[in-house]
Amino acid sequence: MFVGCQSPEPVRIGDAYPREGEPAVFLATIEPVVETAGVQIARWTVQATGFPGWIRSITEQAEVFASDPGIIAVVGHPGSRDALLAASIYNARGIPNLVPNATSARLGKAGPWIFTLVPNDSVQGEFLANYAVDSLHASRISVLYIGDEYGIGLRDGVRAALRRQRQDLVDATLVPGGDCASQNPGSVFGPIVRAALRRSPPDVLIIATGSVNGWCAANLAHEANPTTWILFSDGMDGAKHVPSYAVHVNSERVRGVTFWEPRADSVNAVFLDRVKPALGRVPDASLALQYDAYMLLAAAVRDVGPDRIAIRNWLESLGRTRQPWMGVTGPIAFTRPRSEILRMTAPDEGER
After folding, report:
1. Separation CA 145–CA 164 (nearest Å)
2. Distances 221 to 110, 143, 180, 191, 192 between C-alpha atoms, Å
3. Domain termination site, one of 209, 232, 258
């Protein structure tokens, strides 16, 4: 790509994930593959401290990417709130935005430049509700959730799906978003969870929180009743690894939603061969979806060139005038929710 008649501007994809440690290793591992399409990766540059600063940094970074003519697309942002904050900027500025991990149903209405790779909250909520009713034969289902776009969306998705089956939640309790594993004597997390469980003891407890708080809630639930089924939303990535502090968790009564597990096909084999040695473990679903996003954009550039409009039109054509693109997580098209990638997994007993 050239800017005016001056020196060539490198073609880049914006990476909207602030990366340190393992996420940075992952990106460095896949970067050479992306570059074979003649595309570089532009990393996150905006600095932030504290929660207000973090919120501001999301929009600032989106502006940095959108205003750079060398950025032809963006991958990210990581969570529903982050992605929604940035989506309005990308849509207004006409830059394709592939969102690998966020589930907010509002992203589907954010505009024609936003493309999501995972089923939204309503679809996942229906999956969780159906699993609780059809597979676990539950009659008393409750939800613990955090008060952001992710937690509220999943709560509403589960409730809507249950009402279609002429049931309803017996309880839906908002829990704090802070780190419950820290030794904070003033924490209200435990009392809130215990009170919810006493108020309406569930057969199945659906937990839509972050990882640390999710395991804390499960630990409290199984301390009260080890036969309660725990269903985690996708934020726990299948709830495979029970941490050492969750001493009361009954792993046999825990299941978690994930969007991907390795399959025995050549696409998955190539992905694992590239990424697993660098990480020292099998990558999780979040990384598989990010990998698909980058490979998908690289394929678009090879096919139609480094042009924002052409790439957007190419993405929209998948499943319409073009065949779905085959990724690590399965065929990708943007004509319907990818409900087929939802799966329920059990913890790995060897991890605790």
Report:
1. 21
2. 37, 12, 14, 12, 12
3. 258
Instruction: Find the radius of gyration of the CA atoms of the chain.
Output: 21
132 lies in the same domain as 254: yes
CATH (domain of 231): 3.40.50.2300
Same-domain status, 126 and 253: yes
* Run means of pLDDT, 10 residues per run, the chain, 352 residues: 50 96 96 97 87 84 97 95 96 98 94 97 95 97 94 95 96 87 68 95 94 90 97 88 91 96 96 97 96 98 98 98 98 96 84 46
pTM beyond cutoff 0.85: yes
* 70 and 41 belong to one structural domain: yes
Is 232 within a domain?
yes
Distance CA 300, CA 124 (A): 28
200 shares a domain with 108: no
Distance CA 124, CA 130 (A): 10
Q: Which domain holds residue 147?
A: 122-258
* C-alpha span between 78 and 100 (Å, rounded): 7
Q: For residue 5, is it within any domain?
A: no
Quick one: 205 and 137 in the same domain?
yes
Q: Nearest-CA neighbor of 4 among 92, 69, 84?
A: 69
Cβ atoms within 10 Å of 63's Cβ, excluding its own: 15
Distance CA 65, CA 19 (A): 16
**Is 85 inside any structural domain?**
yes
97 and 141 belong to one structural domain: no
Does one domain contain both 317 and 248? Answer: no
The predicted-structure confidence for 57-114, as pLDDT tens digits, reads as follows: 999 999 999 999 999 999 999 989 999 999 999 999 999 999 999 999 999 999 999 9
Residues 246 and 136 in one domain: yes
What are the residues facing 224 on neighbouring strands?
none
Nearest Cα neighbor of 311 from 106, 90, 119 is: 90
